[in-house]
Amino acid sequence: MAGKSYKIVVIGAGGVGKSCFTIQLISGTFVETYDPTLEDSYRKQMTIDGEEAILNIYDTAGQEDFSAVRDQYIRIGEGFVCMYSVTTDASFQEVRNLREKLLNITDDEHIPCVLVGNKCDLHEDREVATATGLGLATEFGWKFLEASAKNKTNVVEAFEEIVKSIRVYRAGTGGGAGQPGEAEKPEVKPKKRLCLLL
Fold first, then answer.
1. Which of 17, 111, 157, 166 has the fewest CB within 10 Å, making it most exposed?
2. β-strand 51-59 against 41-48: which pairing, if any?
């Protein structure tokens, strides 16, 4: 039996490792150099909490200068992995702008999002403290993890968390993009949007 489908968009400033992160999930390999003209959408089947899930992942790498294309991905997305690099404060500051863009396009402050501080393996180059990332995620009501596409740290976990958030969101709103009126976990009450912070 095929699992339910989830549309996940990976967003973030240029150079934070969005494509490497996505490719690590899809193929289990770390790509040192990435050509942003390559594929921008991927499909991955996973079992999350005992349920099959088909992840349709849209990577916005190479789209930073093409806001119309990125905005189109945002319109179809059900959940977002918002990424910054812990080695670049400017990429962290861009997260606020991306959140505003999400709110403007989706008109939904409860849209499922996970904030990911990538490149946590580069300790000596760190510019953004873990507590700073966690604080911003808490402010936004988002889940948070630090990750390393290179070391496979929290790559799978980030996508598992966004799928779980989408499931709760669908149940709480009586449906979601692609699943009208379907509630996966009826015991979840509408409008309760508690976030697990890691």
1. 157
2. antiparallel
Calpha distance 59→16 (Å, rounded):
12
Q: pLDDT tens digits, the chain, 198 residues: what are they? A: 467 999 999 999 989 999 999 999 999 988 877 665 455 889 999 999 999 999 999 988 655 555 777 788 899 999 999 999 999 999 999 999 999 999 999 999 999 999 999 999 999 999 999 999 999 999 999 999 999 999 999 999 999 999 999 999 999 864 444 333 333 333 433 444 444 455
* SS3 state of residue 56: strand
Q: Look-up: residue for tokens 């936004």?
A: 140
User: Which residue is listed with tokens 């959408």?
Assistant: 41
Structure tokens at 32: 């040192």
For the chain, domains (ranges, CATH) are 4-173 (3.40.50.300)
User: Taking the C-alpha atoms of 72, 76, 81 and 83 in order, what is their torsion angle to the nearest 10 degrees?
Assistant: 0
